[in-house]
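Q: Hi! Curious about what Xanthine dehydrogenase YagT iron-sulfur-binding subunit looks like structurally. Here's the sequence.
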Amino acid sequence: MKITLKVDGVEHKLDVDPRTTLLDALRDRLGITSTKKGCDHGQCGACTILLNGRRAVGCLALAVAHQDAEIVTAAGLADGDELHPLQKAFVEHDAFQCGYCTPGQIVSAVGMMQEAEEGWPSVVTEDPNAEQVELTDTEIAERMSGNLCRCAAYCNIVPAISEVANS
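A: Let's find out. The predicted structure is below.
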């Protein structure tokens, strides 16, 4: 099937098998390797992308279902050589060890901060009717729980996100 995807601001026309996931289309067809293949079951978050502005795991999304979608990967967050504030914070806080989960963590954090700004409550949100959710460490940890880190760098991931979210 022929589809068009806009990835990191660039339009791509692809001919894909209907069973191809967005993750496989990004990595295997477009060579965008910042999106990682971890569990391939939607459980680890290594393949997190922004799909039309919302967090999604690329391994569970079929490419053909997202014709003309706008996709942002970790590679697309930077502005040329200027890192995104969350990318900078992860470096400054040493919020990674092996780094495999880092792209998914950062993309997920970008989407999570937008959700909180829009007032989307989580199970730990104190006031579910608030127009904007305060991103405490507990709130960040809960909202990022779909992104796993095998190295357990959470003690640095949460402060890195908190610094950007609360600045």
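A: A fun detail: Residues 102-117 form the longest helix (16 residues).
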